[in-house]
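Researcher: Quick sanity check before group meeting.
Model: Go ahead. Protein one:
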Amino acid sequence: MKIGMRKPSLKKRIRARTSLKRQIVHRAGLKMPRGYGWVRNPKKYIYNKVYNRTSFDAIKILKKLFK
Protein backbone atom coordinates (compact mmCIF):
# COMPACT_ATOMS: atom_id res chain seq x y z
CA MET A 1 0.00 0.00 0.00
CA LYS A 2 1.37 3.39 -1.01
CA ILE A 3 1.62 6.02 1.71
CA GLY A 4 2.71 9.53 0.82
CA MET A 5 3.02 11.36 -2.47
CA ARG A 6 1.75 9.72 -5.65
CA LYS A 7 3.80 9.87 -8.86
CA PRO A 8 1.65 10.77 -11.89
CA SER A 9 1.90 8.34 -14.79
CA LEU A 10 0.77 9.51 -18.22
CA LYS A 11 0.95 5.95 -19.58
CA LYS A 12 -1.42 4.58 -16.91
CA ARG A 13 -3.79 7.52 -17.36
CA ILE A 14 -4.07 6.86 -21.11
CA ARG A 15 -4.48 3.10 -20.66
CA ALA A 16 -7.29 3.59 -18.15
CA ARG A 17 -9.19 5.83 -20.56
CA THR A 18 -8.76 3.60 -23.61
CA SER A 19 -9.13 0.12 -22.11
CA LEU A 20 -11.37 -2.37 -23.89
CA LYS A 21 -13.16 -3.31 -20.66
CA ARG A 22 -14.05 0.33 -19.99
CA GLN A 23 -15.44 0.78 -23.51
CA ILE A 24 -17.60 -2.37 -23.30
CA VAL A 25 -19.05 -1.49 -19.88
CA HIS A 26 -19.66 2.13 -20.89
CA ARG A 27 -21.38 1.33 -24.20
CA ALA A 28 -23.50 -1.47 -22.70
CA GLY A 29 -24.85 0.94 -20.09
CA LEU A 30 -23.66 -1.19 -17.16
CA LYS A 31 -22.25 1.72 -15.17
CA MET A 32 -22.97 1.77 -11.47
CA PRO A 33 -24.20 4.96 -9.79
CA ARG A 34 -21.62 6.90 -7.77
CA GLY A 35 -20.96 5.30 -4.41
CA TYR A 36 -21.95 1.78 -5.48
CA GLY A 37 -18.41 0.51 -6.19
CA TRP A 38 -18.67 -1.85 -3.23
CA VAL A 39 -21.42 -3.76 -5.07
CA ARG A 40 -19.33 -4.45 -8.16
CA ASN A 41 -15.97 -5.23 -6.51
CA PRO A 42 -15.82 -4.93 -2.67
CA LYS A 43 -12.10 -5.80 -2.41
CA LYS A 44 -11.11 -3.07 -4.88
CA TYR A 45 -13.47 -0.60 -3.16
CA ILE A 46 -11.79 -1.09 0.23
CA TYR A 47 -8.28 -0.88 -1.27
CA ASN A 48 -9.08 2.36 -3.10
CA LYS A 49 -10.73 3.87 -0.02
CA VAL A 50 -7.59 3.30 2.08
CA TYR A 51 -5.22 4.32 -0.75
CA ASN A 52 -6.99 7.62 -1.36
CA ARG A 53 -6.89 8.51 2.34
CA THR A 54 -3.22 7.64 2.88
CA SER A 55 -1.69 9.17 -0.23
CA PHE A 56 -1.84 12.56 -1.93
CA ASP A 57 -1.37 13.92 -5.42
CA ALA A 58 1.50 16.37 -5.99
CA ILE A 59 -0.22 17.99 -8.98
CA LYS A 60 -3.32 18.88 -6.93
CA ILE A 61 -1.15 20.49 -4.27
CA LEU A 62 0.63 22.60 -6.91
CA LYS A 63 -2.70 23.70 -8.39
CA LYS A 64 -3.91 24.85 -4.96
CA LEU A 65 -0.68 26.80 -4.36
CA PHE A 66 -0.87 28.69 -7.65
CA LYS A 67 -4.59 29.51 -7.63
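Researcher: Fine. The other one?
Model: Protein two, sequence then structure:
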Amino acid sequence: MSRPSSSTRASEVVRLPAPAVHAHDRSLIPIGMSTILPDAAQRVRRLEETLLASLGRWGYQEIIPSTFEYLDVLSAGLEPAVLEQCYQFADRTTGRILLLRPDVTAQIARIVAMGMAGSCLPLRLSYRTTVFRYEPEHAGREREVFQVGAELIGVDDVAMDGEIIALMIDCLTQLGLTAFTISLGHVGFFKALLSRTGMSPEGRKRAEQAAARKDLPHLEDILAQERVPKRAARGILEAPDLYGREDVLRRGRVLAGHDRRLHATLDRLTQVYRLLVEAGLKDYLLLDLGEFRGFDYYDGVVFDVFADGVGCELGGGGRYNNLIGRFGRDLPSTGFAFDVGRLFQAMERAGEGASRAATDVLVAAPARRCGQLFQVARLLRKAGLRVLQGSLRGTDSEAIQSTVDEGRRLATASVVILGTPALAAGDALLVTGPSMSRRKTVKIQALPATLLKR
Protein backbone atom coordinates (compact mmCIF):
# COMPACT_ATOMS: atom_id res chain seq x y z
CA MET A 1 0.00 0.00 0.00
CA SER A 2 1.83 3.10 -1.22
CA ARG A 3 1.33 6.72 -0.37
CA PRO A 4 1.05 9.41 -3.09
CA SER A 5 4.02 11.72 -3.32
CA SER A 6 3.70 15.22 -1.90
CA SER A 7 4.39 16.86 -5.25
CA THR A 8 1.64 14.89 -6.97
CA ARG A 9 -0.88 15.54 -4.24
CA ALA A 10 -0.23 19.26 -4.43
CA SER A 11 -0.30 19.78 -8.17
CA GLU A 12 -1.92 17.03 -10.26
CA VAL A 13 -5.54 17.51 -11.27
CA VAL A 14 -8.01 15.29 -13.07
CA ARG A 15 -10.68 16.69 -15.37
CA LEU A 16 -13.92 15.37 -16.72
CA PRO A 17 -13.61 14.34 -20.38
CA ALA A 18 -14.04 17.17 -22.88
CA PRO A 19 -13.96 17.47 -26.65
CA ALA A 20 -10.85 18.64 -28.46
CA VAL A 21 -10.83 22.43 -28.60
CA HIS A 22 -8.70 24.63 -30.86
CA ALA A 23 -6.50 27.27 -29.20
CA HIS A 24 -8.61 30.12 -30.59
CA ASP A 25 -11.83 28.58 -29.27
CA ARG A 26 -10.34 28.05 -25.81
CA SER A 27 -10.19 31.82 -25.37
CA LEU A 28 -14.00 31.88 -25.65
CA ILE A 29 -14.52 29.40 -22.79
CA PRO A 30 -14.17 30.40 -19.11
CA ILE A 31 -11.00 28.87 -17.71
CA GLY A 32 -11.50 26.04 -15.24
CA MET A 33 -15.20 25.53 -16.08
CA SER A 34 -16.64 22.26 -17.38
CA THR A 35 -18.87 21.39 -20.32
CA ILE A 36 -19.84 17.73 -20.18
CA LEU A 37 -21.09 16.31 -23.48
CA PRO A 38 -23.91 13.73 -23.76
CA ASP A 39 -22.00 10.44 -23.48
CA ALA A 40 -19.90 11.59 -20.54
CA ALA A 41 -22.94 13.30 -18.96
CA GLN A 42 -24.84 10.00 -18.89
CA ARG A 43 -21.93 8.26 -17.17
CA VAL A 44 -21.49 11.10 -14.69
CA ARG A 45 -25.18 10.98 -13.78
CA ARG A 46 -25.00 7.20 -13.30
CA LEU A 47 -22.01 7.73 -11.02
CA GLU A 48 -23.89 10.35 -8.99
CA GLU A 49 -27.03 8.21 -8.77
CA THR A 50 -24.99 5.24 -7.55
CA LEU A 51 -23.43 7.40 -4.84
CA LEU A 52 -26.77 8.88 -3.77
CA ALA A 53 -28.32 5.40 -3.68
CA SER A 54 -25.49 4.20 -1.44
CA LEU A 55 -25.93 7.21 0.84
CA GLY A 56 -29.67 6.59 0.92
CA ARG A 57 -29.20 3.00 2.04
CA TRP A 58 -27.38 4.35 5.09
CA GLY A 59 -30.26 6.71 5.88
CA TYR A 60 -28.77 9.95 4.49
CA GLN A 61 -31.40 12.30 3.07
CA GLU A 62 -30.59 14.58 0.16
CA ILE A 63 -30.50 18.35 0.64
CA ILE A 64 -30.23 20.88 -2.21
CA PRO A 65 -28.44 24.06 -1.05
CA SER A 66 -28.70 27.39 -2.84
CA THR A 67 -26.05 28.46 -5.35
CA PHE A 68 -25.64 31.96 -3.85
CA GLU A 69 -24.99 33.01 -0.25
CA TYR A 70 -24.57 36.40 1.41
CA LEU A 71 -20.88 37.05 2.01
CA ASP A 72 -21.42 38.62 5.42
CA VAL A 73 -23.35 35.52 6.58
CA LEU A 74 -21.29 32.63 5.17
CA SER A 75 -17.94 34.27 5.93
CA ALA A 76 -18.37 33.24 9.59
CA GLY A 77 -17.67 29.66 8.50
CA LEU A 78 -14.84 30.25 6.06
CA GLU A 79 -11.20 31.17 6.54
CA PRO A 80 -9.78 34.29 4.82
CA ALA A 81 -7.83 32.25 2.23
CA VAL A 82 -11.06 30.62 1.02
CA LEU A 83 -12.93 33.93 0.94
CA GLU A 84 -10.21 35.32 -1.31
CA GLN A 85 -10.99 32.54 -3.81
CA CYS A 86 -14.73 33.27 -3.91
CA TYR A 87 -16.56 34.76 -6.86
CA GLN A 88 -18.35 37.83 -5.45
CA PHE A 89 -20.87 40.29 -6.88
CA ALA A 90 -23.52 42.72 -5.70
CA ASP A 91 -27.16 41.75 -5.21
CA ARG A 92 -29.13 44.12 -7.46
CA THR A 93 -32.05 44.11 -5.02
CA THR A 94 -30.33 44.76 -1.69
CA GLY A 95 -26.84 45.92 -2.63
CA ARG A 96 -25.35 43.27 -0.34
CA ILE A 97 -22.44 41.20 -1.61
CA LEU A 98 -23.30 37.71 -2.83
CA LEU A 99 -20.87 34.88 -3.47
CA LEU A 100 -21.05 31.70 -5.48
CA ARG A 101 -20.97 28.72 -3.14
CA PRO A 102 -17.26 27.97 -2.40
CA ASP A 103 -17.82 25.16 0.13
CA VAL A 104 -20.82 22.95 0.86
CA THR A 105 -19.96 21.96 4.43
CA ALA A 106 -19.95 25.57 5.66
CA GLN A 107 -23.20 26.16 3.78
CA ILE A 108 -24.92 23.16 5.35
CA ALA A 109 -23.60 24.26 8.76
CA ARG A 110 -25.35 27.59 8.19
CA ILE A 111 -28.56 25.87 7.06
CA VAL A 112 -28.62 23.56 10.09
CA ALA A 113 -27.83 26.30 12.61
CA MET A 114 -30.42 28.69 11.19
CA GLY A 115 -33.25 26.33 10.38
CA MET A 116 -32.74 22.64 11.13
CA ALA A 117 -31.13 22.65 14.58
CA GLY A 118 -34.45 21.80 16.18
CA SER A 119 -34.74 18.58 14.18
CA CYS A 120 -34.22 15.17 15.75
CA LEU A 121 -30.52 14.39 16.07
CA PRO A 122 -28.43 13.03 14.58
CA LEU A 123 -29.09 14.52 11.15
CA ARG A 124 -27.86 12.49 8.20
CA LEU A 125 -27.73 14.67 5.07
CA SER A 126 -26.41 14.07 1.56
CA TYR A 127 -25.96 16.31 -1.48
CA ARG A 128 -24.75 16.56 -5.05
CA THR A 129 -23.79 20.02 -6.16
CA THR A 130 -20.99 22.23 -7.47
CA VAL A 131 -18.60 24.59 -5.71
CA PHE A 132 -16.85 27.55 -7.29
CA ARG A 133 -13.41 28.86 -6.35
CA TYR A 134 -11.06 31.12 -8.23
CA GLU A 135 -7.79 29.40 -9.17
CA PRO A 136 -4.98 31.06 -11.16
CA GLU A 137 -4.75 29.68 -14.69
CA HIS A 138 -1.21 28.41 -14.15
CA ALA A 139 -2.31 26.37 -11.10
CA GLY A 140 -3.98 23.82 -13.38
CA ARG A 141 -6.95 23.31 -11.05
CA GLU A 142 -10.66 23.48 -11.77
CA ARG A 143 -12.71 26.51 -10.74
CA GLU A 144 -16.00 24.58 -10.95
CA VAL A 145 -15.93 21.35 -8.94
CA PHE A 146 -18.74 18.77 -9.01
CA GLN A 147 -19.24 17.15 -5.60
CA VAL A 148 -21.28 14.43 -3.91
CA GLY A 149 -21.06 14.23 -0.14
CA ALA A 150 -22.59 13.47 3.24
CA GLU A 151 -22.78 15.14 6.65
CA LEU A 152 -23.53 13.42 9.98
CA ILE A 153 -24.59 16.11 12.45
CA GLY A 154 -25.27 16.13 16.18
CA VAL A 155 -23.17 13.35 17.74
CA ASP A 156 -19.53 13.20 18.78
CA ASP A 157 -18.44 9.62 19.35
CA VAL A 158 -16.18 6.97 17.85
CA ALA A 159 -19.07 5.08 16.26
CA MET A 160 -20.08 8.15 14.23
CA ASP A 161 -16.49 8.70 13.06
CA GLY A 162 -16.44 5.05 12.05
CA GLU A 163 -19.80 5.28 10.29
CA ILE A 164 -18.82 8.17 8.04
CA ILE A 165 -15.56 6.48 6.96
CA ALA A 166 -17.26 3.11 6.44
CA LEU A 167 -19.91 4.94 4.39
CA MET A 168 -17.25 6.46 2.16
CA ILE A 169 -15.72 3.01 1.62
CA ASP A 170 -19.13 1.55 0.80
CA CYS A 171 -19.77 4.30 -1.77
CA LEU A 172 -16.49 3.53 -3.52
CA THR A 173 -17.05 -0.22 -3.59
CA GLN A 174 -20.57 0.29 -4.94
CA LEU A 175 -18.95 2.15 -7.84
CA GLY A 176 -16.80 -0.90 -8.52
CA LEU A 177 -13.59 0.60 -7.11
CA THR A 178 -11.42 -1.67 -4.97
CA ALA A 179 -7.86 -0.35 -5.33
CA PHE A 180 -8.06 2.70 -3.08
CA THR A 181 -6.63 3.84 0.25
CA ILE A 182 -8.13 5.91 3.05
CA SER A 183 -5.43 8.08 4.64
CA LEU A 184 -6.60 8.45 8.26
CA GLY A 185 -5.28 10.94 10.81
CA HIS A 186 -6.17 13.52 13.45
CA VAL A 187 -5.50 17.22 12.83
CA GLY A 188 -5.14 17.81 16.55
CA PHE A 189 -1.93 15.79 16.75
CA PHE A 190 0.22 18.01 14.55
CA LYS A 191 -1.43 21.19 15.83
CA ALA A 192 -0.63 20.18 19.42
CA LEU A 193 2.98 19.46 18.44
CA LEU A 194 3.23 23.01 17.10
CA SER A 195 1.37 24.78 19.90
CA ARG A 196 3.64 23.45 22.66
CA THR A 197 6.68 25.06 21.01
CA GLY A 198 5.50 28.62 21.60
CA MET A 199 5.43 29.44 17.88
CA SER A 200 3.57 32.54 16.73
CA PRO A 201 0.02 31.99 15.36
CA GLU A 202 1.22 33.01 11.90
CA GLY A 203 4.15 30.60 12.11
CA ARG A 204 1.89 27.74 13.19
CA LYS A 205 -0.44 28.41 10.27
CA ARG A 206 2.42 28.41 7.75
CA ALA A 207 3.79 25.22 9.31
CA GLU A 208 0.40 23.53 9.00
CA GLN A 209 0.19 24.50 5.33
CA ALA A 210 3.69 23.15 4.66
CA ALA A 211 2.87 19.89 6.48
CA ALA A 212 -0.36 19.51 4.49
CA ARG A 213 1.70 19.70 1.28
CA LYS A 214 4.36 17.35 2.77
CA ASP A 215 6.86 20.12 1.99
CA LEU A 216 9.44 19.23 4.64
CA PRO A 217 12.22 21.62 3.47
CA HIS A 218 9.84 24.58 3.74
CA LEU A 219 8.58 23.30 7.09
CA GLU A 220 12.16 23.12 8.34
CA ASP A 221 12.77 26.72 7.24
CA ILE A 222 9.66 27.89 9.10
CA LEU A 223 10.74 26.14 12.30
CA ALA A 224 14.18 27.73 12.03
CA GLN A 225 12.64 31.19 11.50
CA GLU A 226 10.45 30.64 14.58
CA ARG A 227 13.53 29.52 16.56
CA VAL A 228 11.96 26.21 17.56
CA PRO A 229 14.42 24.13 19.66
CA LYS A 230 16.12 21.39 17.65
CA ARG A 231 14.64 18.52 19.66
CA ALA A 232 11.08 19.79 19.21
CA ALA A 233 11.77 20.55 15.54
CA ARG A 234 12.90 16.96 14.93
CA GLY A 235 9.57 15.63 16.22
CA ILE A 236 7.58 18.10 14.15
CA LEU A 237 9.55 17.21 11.00
CA GLU A 238 9.07 13.50 11.66
CA ALA A 239 5.28 13.64 12.04
CA PRO A 240 4.34 14.32 8.37
CA ASP A 241 6.25 11.19 7.35
CA LEU A 242 4.61 8.94 9.94
CA TYR A 243 2.28 6.81 7.85
CA GLY A 244 1.54 3.10 7.84
CA ARG A 245 -0.22 0.71 10.22
CA GLU A 246 -0.19 0.27 14.02
CA ASP A 247 3.51 1.17 14.31
CA VAL A 248 2.53 4.76 13.44
CA LEU A 249 0.47 4.98 16.62
CA ARG A 250 3.30 3.57 18.72
CA ARG A 251 5.77 6.11 17.34
CA GLY A 252 3.22 8.87 17.86
CA ARG A 253 3.07 7.96 21.57
CA VAL A 254 6.84 8.42 21.78
CA LEU A 255 6.63 11.88 20.18
CA ALA A 256 3.77 12.80 22.50
CA GLY A 257 5.87 12.28 25.64
CA HIS A 258 3.74 13.26 28.62
CA ASP A 259 1.51 15.70 26.72
CA ARG A 260 -2.11 14.79 27.48
CA ARG A 261 -3.46 16.69 24.48
CA LEU A 262 -1.34 14.64 22.09
CA HIS A 263 -2.29 11.37 23.76
CA ALA A 264 -5.98 12.31 23.61
CA THR A 265 -5.80 12.73 19.82
CA LEU A 266 -4.00 9.39 19.47
CA ASP A 267 -6.57 7.71 21.73
CA ARG A 268 -9.43 8.85 19.49
CA LEU A 269 -7.58 7.91 16.31
CA THR A 270 -6.73 4.48 17.73
CA GLN A 271 -10.36 3.82 18.69
CA VAL A 272 -11.64 4.74 15.21
CA TYR A 273 -8.96 2.69 13.51
CA ARG A 274 -9.65 -0.40 15.64
CA LEU A 275 -13.39 -0.10 15.05
CA LEU A 276 -12.87 -0.06 11.29
CA VAL A 277 -10.42 -2.95 11.49
CA GLU A 278 -12.95 -4.95 13.50
CA ALA A 279 -15.51 -4.17 10.80
CA GLY A 280 -13.25 -5.83 8.22
CA LEU A 281 -12.02 -2.64 6.53
CA LYS A 282 -8.32 -2.75 7.47
CA ASP A 283 -7.09 -3.31 3.90
CA TYR A 284 -8.40 0.13 2.90
CA LEU A 285 -6.75 2.04 5.75
CA LEU A 286 -3.45 3.87 6.09
CA LEU A 287 -2.66 5.85 9.25
CA ASP A 288 -1.05 9.24 8.64
CA LEU A 289 -0.11 11.54 11.53
CA GLY A 290 0.55 14.37 9.10
CA GLU A 291 -2.92 14.19 7.56
CA PHE A 292 -4.59 17.59 7.05
CA ARG A 293 -7.60 18.93 5.21
CA GLY A 294 -7.82 22.15 3.22
CA PHE A 295 -10.16 23.97 5.62
CA ASP A 296 -9.33 25.17 9.11
CA TYR A 297 -12.70 24.16 10.59
CA TYR A 298 -11.62 20.51 10.88
CA ASP A 299 -10.65 19.71 14.47
CA GLY A 300 -10.70 15.93 14.88
CA VAL A 301 -10.29 12.71 12.92
CA VAL A 302 -9.77 13.50 9.23
CA PHE A 303 -9.22 11.43 6.10
CA ASP A 304 -8.49 11.54 2.37
CA VAL A 305 -9.06 8.83 -0.23
CA PHE A 306 -6.59 7.98 -2.98
CA ALA A 307 -6.98 5.52 -5.86
CA ASP A 308 -4.37 3.72 -7.91
CA GLY A 309 -3.45 5.67 -11.01
CA VAL A 310 -4.97 8.97 -9.81
CA GLY A 311 -2.35 11.13 -8.13
CA CYS A 312 -4.56 13.53 -6.19
CA GLU A 313 -7.25 12.69 -3.66
CA LEU A 314 -10.69 11.59 -4.87
CA GLY A 315 -12.28 13.17 -1.82
CA GLY A 316 -12.05 13.38 1.91
CA GLY A 317 -13.49 14.84 5.06
CA GLY A 318 -13.44 14.67 8.82
CA ARG A 319 -14.80 15.96 12.09
CA TYR A 320 -15.74 19.63 12.60
CA ASN A 321 -17.22 20.06 16.05
CA ASN A 322 -17.15 23.87 16.20
CA LEU A 323 -18.20 25.00 12.72
CA ILE A 324 -21.98 25.01 13.16
CA GLY A 325 -21.58 27.04 16.36
CA ARG A 326 -20.20 29.93 14.30
CA PHE A 327 -23.72 30.36 12.90
CA GLY A 328 -25.76 29.53 16.02
CA ARG A 329 -26.18 26.43 18.14
CA ASP A 330 -22.99 24.37 18.41
CA LEU A 331 -23.36 20.80 17.11
CA PRO A 332 -20.56 18.22 16.74
CA SER A 333 -20.41 16.90 13.18
CA THR A 334 -18.44 14.92 10.65
CA GLY A 335 -18.72 14.38 6.90
CA PHE A 336 -17.02 13.93 3.55
CA ALA A 337 -17.21 14.95 -0.09
CA PHE A 338 -16.13 13.31 -3.35
CA ASP A 339 -14.73 15.20 -6.33
CA VAL A 340 -16.90 13.74 -9.11
CA GLY A 341 -14.41 14.62 -11.85
CA ARG A 342 -11.63 12.69 -10.14
CA LEU A 343 -13.96 9.80 -9.36
CA PHE A 344 -14.90 9.72 -13.03
CA GLN A 345 -11.25 9.27 -13.95
CA ALA A 346 -10.85 6.47 -11.41
CA MET A 347 -13.98 4.82 -12.80
CA GLU A 348 -12.53 4.95 -16.31
CA ARG A 349 -9.70 2.76 -15.02
CA ALA A 350 -11.77 0.37 -12.93
CA GLY A 351 -15.23 0.16 -14.57
CA GLU A 352 -18.58 1.33 -13.23
CA GLY A 353 -20.50 -0.20 -10.33
CA ALA A 354 -24.25 -0.43 -10.03
CA SER A 355 -26.70 0.28 -7.27
CA ARG A 356 -29.77 -1.81 -6.46
CA ALA A 357 -33.19 -1.14 -5.05
CA ALA A 358 -33.55 -1.61 -1.31
CA THR A 359 -35.91 -1.96 1.63
CA ASP A 360 -35.38 -0.47 5.10
CA VAL A 361 -34.00 -1.98 8.30
CA LEU A 362 -32.73 -0.42 11.53
CA VAL A 363 -29.83 -2.38 13.12
CA ALA A 364 -28.86 -1.57 16.71
CA ALA A 365 -26.36 -2.91 19.25
CA PRO A 366 -24.79 -1.78 22.53
CA ALA A 367 -21.65 0.37 22.27
CA ARG A 368 -19.44 -2.56 23.25
CA ARG A 369 -20.67 -4.47 20.15
CA CYS A 370 -19.99 -1.72 17.60
CA GLY A 371 -17.77 -4.02 15.55
CA GLN A 372 -20.53 -6.61 15.18
CA LEU A 373 -22.99 -3.82 14.36
CA PHE A 374 -20.82 -2.67 11.44
CA GLN A 375 -20.34 -6.23 10.20
CA VAL A 376 -24.06 -7.06 10.22
CA ALA A 377 -25.00 -3.75 8.61
CA ARG A 378 -22.42 -4.39 5.92
CA LEU A 379 -23.81 -7.92 5.36
CA LEU A 380 -27.31 -6.55 4.87
CA ARG A 381 -26.23 -3.74 2.54
CA LYS A 382 -24.34 -6.23 0.38
CA ALA A 383 -27.69 -8.01 0.00
CA GLY A 384 -29.21 -4.77 -1.33
CA LEU A 385 -31.03 -3.62 1.78
CA ARG A 386 -31.29 -0.03 2.97
CA VAL A 387 -29.72 -0.05 6.45
CA LEU A 388 -29.70 2.53 9.23
CA GLN A 389 -27.33 1.94 12.15
CA GLY A 390 -28.37 2.82 15.69
CA SER A 391 -27.09 2.56 19.26
CA LEU A 392 -28.80 0.36 21.84
CA ARG A 393 -28.65 2.38 25.07
CA GLY A 394 -28.50 -0.60 27.40
CA THR A 395 -29.60 -4.23 27.07
CA ASP A 396 -32.86 -4.43 29.04
CA SER A 397 -36.39 -4.64 27.64
CA GLU A 398 -36.90 -0.88 27.99
CA ALA A 399 -33.83 -0.16 25.82
CA ILE A 400 -35.01 -2.66 23.22
CA GLN A 401 -38.49 -1.12 23.14
CA SER A 402 -36.95 2.35 22.74
CA THR A 403 -35.06 1.12 19.68
CA VAL A 404 -38.20 -0.49 18.25
CA ASP A 405 -40.05 2.79 18.78
CA GLU A 406 -37.24 4.56 16.90
CA GLY A 407 -37.65 2.10 14.03
CA ARG A 408 -41.37 2.82 13.97
CA ARG A 409 -40.70 6.59 13.92
CA LEU A 410 -38.31 6.14 10.99
CA ALA A 411 -40.88 3.98 9.17
CA THR A 412 -38.48 1.07 8.76
CA ALA A 413 -39.92 -2.29 7.76
CA SER A 414 -37.83 -4.19 10.30
CA VAL A 415 -35.61 -3.72 13.36
CA VAL A 416 -32.64 -5.97 14.14
CA ILE A 417 -31.25 -6.06 17.70
CA LEU A 418 -27.76 -7.44 18.41
CA GLY A 419 -25.64 -8.15 21.47
CA THR A 420 -28.16 -8.46 24.31
CA PRO A 421 -27.58 -11.01 27.11
CA ALA A 422 -30.60 -13.06 25.98
CA LEU A 423 -29.10 -13.64 22.52
CA ALA A 424 -26.53 -16.27 21.61
CA ALA A 425 -23.36 -15.05 19.87
CA GLY A 426 -24.63 -15.81 16.36
CA ASP A 427 -28.24 -14.73 16.88
CA ALA A 428 -30.21 -11.52 16.36
CA LEU A 429 -33.65 -10.37 17.49
CA LEU A 430 -35.81 -9.51 14.47
CA VAL A 431 -38.80 -7.21 15.03
CA THR A 432 -41.32 -6.81 12.19
CA GLY A 433 -44.97 -6.27 11.42
CA PRO A 434 -47.17 -3.22 10.77
CA SER A 435 -47.02 -2.21 14.43
CA MET A 436 -43.59 -3.78 15.12
CA SER A 437 -45.29 -6.45 17.24
CA ARG A 438 -43.74 -9.62 15.80
CA ARG A 439 -40.47 -10.75 17.39
CA LYS A 440 -38.33 -13.79 16.69
CA THR A 441 -34.74 -14.90 17.03
CA VAL A 442 -32.88 -15.37 13.73
CA LYS A 443 -29.39 -16.57 12.90
CA ILE A 444 -27.34 -13.53 11.79
CA GLN A 445 -26.22 -15.25 8.58
CA ALA A 446 -29.87 -15.93 7.72
CA LEU A 447 -30.92 -12.27 8.12
CA PRO A 448 -30.46 -11.22 4.45
CA ALA A 449 -32.62 -14.05 3.13
CA THR A 450 -35.22 -13.55 5.87
CA LEU A 451 -35.52 -9.82 5.28
CA LEU A 452 -35.57 -10.08 1.50
CA LYS A 453 -38.55 -12.43 1.69
CA ARG A 454 -40.64 -9.77 3.37
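Researcher: One line on it for the slide.
Model: Confidence is low (pLDDT under 50) at residues 1-15, 352-359.
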